[in-house]
Amino acid sequence: MAYQYFVDQWLPYKERFVYAWTNNVMHYSNTTTNRVESTHSRLKQHIGSSQGNFETCWVQIHALLQASHNAIKASFEKSNNVVQHRFSASMFYLLRGEVSIEVLDKILDESKRMSNIGTDSLMCGCILRKTCGLPCAHELNEFSLMGTPILPESIHPL
Length: 158
Prior knowledge:
By secondary structure, the chain is mainly alpha-helical. Helix content is 60%, strand content 0%. It is flat and about 60 Å long.
């Protein structure tokens, strides 16, 4: 009886419960385990065999981590050195070269909500602030109204 009630009355709304929970926790847009699973798969392919000893596995893991780290550094250097046209607006002036292109993209997407939200934090919901530590639509609108660029201090440090 209780099980059927749960299945009929609450289970249809399960996505809403998860959505409400995940939008109140800082997760930097990582809401699935796909990244971990794909990294694990890549690691297994890189090692090649389950028969290796500790030293050979360590060398393989270290090499994979170094390659990943180098790719991240190269991407960030590109972010620092290349000013893309879509970030030429004065609101991005202080962020260019300080944060990654991915962060600038997220802020740019959020800025498209500014005109609908205004400075009302309740209407905004502040989801980008809560989940990624980035300025949300109503904060961006406040910067715009003051005529100042987005301050680097408004970005949550990792």
